[in-house]
Every structure is written in structure tokens, then in C-alpha cells.
């Protein structure tokens, strides 16, 4: 895909249209200053003209002809929609001629935490990790201890919508058979970034005699790869991952999304619809030190959806964490978190990406309870600390 970079992400949220009227003006371009995928749009059918799940692909190809476009992903189990590769003019024409379309959004680019290691840089002592970290005896990361220690996650399932997972990491129980890749990588669901593997370890690293231990130790982790080796990906691929979890996830499973970018109604609506199936979603609030309402999927709200901010040791606020209640529901440890990493390794990272999987593990084990609040929350509404 061809990525166009214009600068810093916009801060203004896009208003949600609950009963959109059709027309060429229902094309939502990417926020000024954001990164977007050139010539690619996410389109959603209106609930005024219901499209059955098995008919979305056919209807998508029919309306895409008015844009002289090519259909990519088809979404049938969350939003009823599709991706079309076409010109802006073609998409406007398609919208004006098809009243069953609610809106189209320009596809955007999202990235994992900027606090993760840059591309090509593995764990080292400066990052607080190290190739032999925890290999001679098992370490209980401070975050896991703070939320109540490790519980038995045997038989439970967490879907990690991220950069993939190290599929043969010795400290993880990876469900390789159900893992999937939406980035079209030659490596499949294998994690080439390290970010997704780190998330998976906080959720479910095995309770054994080496490495680290996760909150729901030994739970099955399923890689839903939507980000490349640089930790970036398109919103359209991320929605495909959410749609996949809605299709194959079970009631009581947890899906973690430690990723984000500027506001997207399509992505938020997909998460809300997927959570309605009974899968619980944990969402990283973001690392911009700003209102989480301006970012997706962090700003999604609904049943079974939890947006998570980050705090540091001493139960105090960390400057980079996004804030705002709503959408933030709980806060979790997110500074100097040791966990599993790509290539069978371990590393210590910081970010709301590291906070969200703590809650994912708690939710796998059962209901969450609260244990005090953080100090120094910039919005004056101290976030509740979630523990098991």
C-alpha cells in the first residue's frame, strides 16, 4: 500500500452520525495532518437498508462499479461494509448513486506505541531487557504483582490484535492453528516487531521455572496480525482483524488492541459490534498525553469494552498516557513492564500498550475489581486501578 504522510495527527474528534443520510458529502477524508492510504476507502452500508452477512460481498461489488473501484476486505460480522480501492471522485459518485451506503472513510494508518523499540532494534540493557532476562528463574513482573499476581489461565483464550506473536516462544501457549495474518506478510502471523509478543506475555506467559509469568498464566493466545514489522498498519486491516474475532471468538474470550490512531467511526463501530458477541475488548488509551476521545479504537464505548490508561510504580500517573472518562474505564501498570519478546526473547517496555493486556488477563480470569486510584491524573478524575 502507498502511505502518504502529512505530519502530526489531528486532535479533533469526528462526530458520530447515528442516522446518516446518503450523498457524495458522506465521504470522510482523513483528519488533516494524519497518515492515510492513498486511493483506499472503508465504506459502510446503512442500517436503513439491511444487508445480510452473506450478501455483503455481492452488494459491495455491485455498488463499487459506480466508483470504478476494486473491492478488498469485506466485513460481514461487525459493520456491514467493505474496502474499495478507487479515486476520491469515484467514491463520491458511488455515494451519490447508492442510498444503501451510509458513509465512506478514507483509510488511515495506525501505529503501536512510540515507546516500543524502533525497527531493527532488539532488546538490550538500555531497554531494560536482555537476551538472558529471566531465563535462569521465573520473574514476576511488577505489573502482574500489582494487579493481584498470576492466576491459572488454562483453557482460556485471548486474541491479540497486534503485530503477531512469536509462534514458538517457549514461555507462551500460542494457538497457532487459529492464528491469522491480515498484512499479507510472507512470515504469516509470526511477530516481526516484538510488540504483539510482549502484549501476549503480559496476558498469559506460562507459570514455569523460567522467563516471566502473565496475569492469566498459560491461557491460549491467538495471533491476529494486523501490523507489520515496523508496528504500523491500515485501519482496514485492523477492522478485518476485529471482524475475524467477532466471527471465531467465543463468549468469555478477551481480545486486546494495543494500537491506535486518529478517530474512525468505522473502527469504533466494528469494535462495538464485535464486543456485542460476548468477546470482551481491552483497548490501549494511547500515548499522546491527550484526551482519548480523539483516538480510535480507544474512544469506542459499549458493553464488554474497556479503555485502559497507564500508571507507574507508586500508583502515580505517567505523563504519556491518554486520559478522559469516558472513554477510559480503568488504569493498569504501563511503565517498565517486563514480558516476552520476539525470537524467544524478553524485553522491558512502557506504554498504554503494556497496560491494556494486564486488564485482558484479569478479565479472562473473571470479573475485575478496583483497588484505589492513581494520583496526578490531568483531567482531575482519578482513574480506578483494576485488579483481579
Automatic annotation (TrEMBL):
**PROSITE patterns per the record?**
SUBTILASE, SUBTILASE_ASP, SUBTILASE_HIS
Coiled coil (UniProt feature): none
Region annotation (Disordered) maps to: 112-143
| Start and end residues of each Peptidase S8/S53 domain | 156-364
Which residues are catalytic? 162, 195, 353
Q: Which UniProt keywords apply?
A: Hydrolase, Protease, Serine protease, Signal
Has UniProt tagged this entry with the keyword Kinase?
no
Reading the lineage from the top rank, the first entry is Bacteria
Signal peptide interval: 1-23
InterPro entries associated with the record: Peptidase_S8/S53_dom, Peptidase_S8/S53_dom_sf, Peptidase_S8_Asp-AS, Peptidase_S8_His-AS, Peptidase_S8_subtilisin-like, Peptidase_S8_subtilisin-rel, S8pro/Inhibitor_I9_sf
Indicate the family of this protein: Belongs to the peptidase S8 family.
Q: Which PANTHER family match?
A: PEPTIDASE S8, SERIN ENDOPEPTIDASE
Q: What is this protein called?
A: S8 family serine peptidase
Q: Give the originating organism.
A: Aurantiacibacter gilvus
